[in-house]
Amino acid sequence: MGALDVSVCDYVLRSLILSPSCFLPASLAKRREMEKVLKPMDAEQLRENAHKMVDFIADYYKNIESFPVLSQVEPGYLRKLLPDSAPTHPESLQNVLDDIQEKILPGVTHWQSPDYFAYFPSNSSTAGFLGEMLSAGINIVGFSWVTSPAATELEVIVLDWLGKMLKLPEEFLSQGKGGGVIQGTASEAVLVVLLAARDKFLGRVGKNSLEKLVVYASDQTHSSLQKACRIAGIYPENCRLLKTDSSSNFALPPDVLSEAISKDIAAGLIPIFLCATVGTTSSTAVDPLPALGKIAKGNEMWFHIDAAYAGSACVCPEYRHCIDGIEEADSFNMNAHKWFLTNFDCSLLWVKDRNDLIQSLSSNPEYLKNKASDGNMVVDYKDWQIPLGRRFRSLKLWMVLRLYGLDNLQQYIRNHIELAKHFEQLVAVDHRFEIVVPRTFSLVCFRLCPPNDDHDHCNKLNRDLLDAVNSTGKIFMSHTVLSGKYILRFVVGTPLTEEKHVDAAWAVLQDEATTLLGRF
Amino acid sequence: MGALDVSVCDYVLRSLILSPSCFLPASLAKRREMEKVLKPMDAEQLRENAHKMVDFIADYYKNIESFPVLSQVEPGYLRKLLPDSAPTHPESLQNVLDDIQEKILPGVTHWQSPDYFAYFPSNSSTAGFLGEMLSAGINIVGFSWVTSPAATELEVIVLDWLGKMLKLPEEFLSQGKGGGVIQGTASEAVLVVLLAARDKFLGRVGKNSLEKLVVYASDQTHSSLQKACRIAGIYPENCRLLKTDSSSNFALPPDVLSEAISKDIAAGLIPIFLCATVGTTSSTAVDPLPALGKIAKGNEMWFHIDAAYAGSACVCPEYRHCIDGIEEADSFNMNAHKWFLTNFDCSLLWVKDRNDLIQSLSSNPEYLKNKASDGNMVVDYKDWQIPLGRRFRSLKLWMVLRLYGLDNLQQYIRNHIELAKHFEQLVAVDHRFEIVVPRTFSLVCFRLCPPNDDHDHCNKLNRDLLDAVNSTGKIFMSHTVLSGKYILRFVVGTPLTEEKHVDAAWAVLQDEATTLLGRF
């Protein structure tokens, strides 16, 4: 059977027998013939094949625990399994599905497995998936309001909804000068606000002053800030990643920031941007926003808050205090695609003054002009982001909010935090291990730390332990280094993870630790 | 019925009756209780609800011709229809689907309608949609090889496949120093190569020389180049958009480029980047690559080719000549999400030297380190792009190539070009209209041009005509301005468009023109 019931050979045969095209003018006959060849958007073919794909995906989730969590393939494995070039003729969907099962899935690291505890989570959910399906299905490109008013307006509304759930200051909502926008990732969010800050300052002090602009953050800040600085042309030596240590639980001490700023001003430099983090990547440290914000505002700098991971927890009243101090911020970012059940990608950025973004990022070529935009009656999100094109991403967030509701979403977060607490307690009673920094959200930072072990050996031991547990395929975790210590990170955050998975993960860790320690 | 069969009230009632949680320790009981509340990734719930969504989307396509192509809503329409805040409790999927039908779809501009002829197309197909479903379904984040080897390796392989279909020079394929990568959009593609070029030159001449760097392109180049220049900090006065006119059919004359470069060098400036276009946005002009490439290489500049729209046509042997001269290019871009049946977003970028990208865009924080990356055994696509996170986008392109095959894809392109020719012939025989530039691919640039009409009035007439046809809801077209002339753009490019739709569109245009001319 040809793919999607289309086969060139079949068609040629059929047309030889049936088609009266020899009686039509040549060009018309040619067009008619071509139109018959491929029906790539036939509604009934889509229906039939998409139902098959739904079952394939649902079956994947039924069996997800049967796969090694971390893919165990070797580099280059896939080239050996696939042909050197694309096919000339169509293949059947069944062939492709078979290949996905046999060739692709072994090379997948299963982020949705209940036994996945690495990096930060990247949540899938039925609601998020349905939203992605719908967005991919209607496949509009919403760069300007006119190209699909619903795409822009739903985004404005849903970002207001979530802003209210987070109790963001009113200035971040769309009714005044501010508003929210969905970026692809937190990297893009920090880049666009850094560009806005850069251009604002260069506008004041002259475009030849790029070399004087200074950006501040702690050394725990996500690497995307440094990358954004490089893209924006901030001089590498003016990107200050201020040192933190265990005395502040790896949060940025305000006096360290003050001192750095004073020194830079004395040297004739211009502080323009502070990035504070709520929930750093290594250890979910929470920078002290109120004090940092005061310093930033005192120096007229742009104040950005990166809460990519931990922002989700702030919809629970008991965690909202983590973003106290946001009143002073110019921009705030949280990734709904991490821990908020919205399939990747969906990074939420709010700004107090949308004109700052528009000043830096707008474009207005003739071929995109239209009455609504010309009349300043609408939001055109193309001017708030790097790319021109954009998907209808608000659908999935809207569906998550409606199909689950605030209560369930809060419970979802709390459940993961409780499971992380449970894991922390398990680690705490095994004296071969130590908790390295206090747990704040759903990440536990710990390490194997036998008594009297020296520093270097201990680091090697934990590196080996991580290798060993990940090689079992039973769980997947990742690591970091804090003040020279190699540390294991255990993040609870997938929708399927239950207590039994946490217990089983701990058993794997204990077993592998025992084996490893037995070797010495 | 609660959404996804989950209702907090139901659960509370059931747990009061059934749960023995009062006999468990408090924290354990709390956890168990929470785990019961929400099952956002239950495989059978996903199956049941996703089947409903498939039918919703297939029905949308069945009825797609019943909607106005261009949404006819007023700015702010949606806020009046939706509540002010997110729900506390879950809603049912049926409620949400009803809202999509009644509130969202009226605000959608239907890019997949067979009567859509605006901008450039943004193709959906069954194969592309299935690929999007699968990618959203397994929801991995493939920033490094290790986070899902298949995501990286399939992308390398599929970009090689397509590179061969386009007969790209071997240096663009992955076996040597080059290779392909999927970016979100052409805007991101041109940005990353511009950054690579900027950093390469600044590395040679010193980072204080930003003000001397000059970028060249024609004034027909997509606005994303200018935006990329602003982001990269290229001085606005050093972004040369060289004038074109009808004498070269709006392609960039090589002597104009040579002259500009000579002048800049004489003034002590440093030419770094040339962006040539194959298929400009306004009129699908094709810049003369061989001559331009020679000039760029003679001056040691980076030579980028933007074939976002027309690149797809180059898989047909009879259009491959449009990219002759690519031998001299450093990078080449085509959007599979425009005219190649791959759902948005999927912008393909090939470079001859991937290290140029990696030099500019790599990051290597401790928490992402892993053996495969440390050993330089693998591609880590995070270092070829702006964001860190990335979806498994190669799946959809792979499925398009396999389920349709090269022959069908070529026929698909040819069919659209034949339909555009057909439209061009219809316009040509109506003496009230004129074809403004010769048609090259599937775009026809034309305008209403009654004899003896003056320039300004003629522009107004065409603006009014566009308004009138788009207001009917029967078709959607867009416009441009070339050498001061307001021009209507008619692009054939959606998978559902057949000859009858082109004929009907022409009838709408003729009718509205008759009405409009009757008024004067």
Automatic annotation (TrEMBL), chains A, B:
Record's PROSITE patterns?
A: DDC_GAD_HDC_YDC
Any single GO CC term annotated in Swiss-Prot or TrEMBL for this entry: cytoplasm
Asked whether the keyword ATP-binding is assigned, the reply is no
An annotated Gene Ontology molecular function: pyridoxal phosphate binding
Q: Which residues cross the membrane?
A: none
Q: Name one Pfam family in it.
A: Pyridoxal_deC
Q: Which cofactor does it need?
A: pyridoxal 5'-phosphate
Q: Name one GO biological process term.
A: amino acid metabolic process
| In-chain residues carrying the UniProt-annotated modification N6-(pyridoxal phosphate)lysine | 338
The protein's matches in InterPro entries, at most eight in alphabetical order, are given as:
Aromatic_deC (IPR010977), PyrdxlP-dep_de-COase (IPR002129), PyrdxlP-dep_Trfase (IPR015424), PyrdxlP-dep_Trfase_major (IPR015421), PyrdxlP-dep_Trfase_small (IPR015422), Pyridoxal-P_BS (IPR021115)
Name the keywords, alphabetized: Decarboxylase, Lyase, Pyridoxal phosphate
Task: Name the family.
Answer: Belongs to the group II decarboxylase family.
What is the protein name given in its UniProt record? Tyrosine decarboxylase
Name its species.
Answer: Protea cynaroides
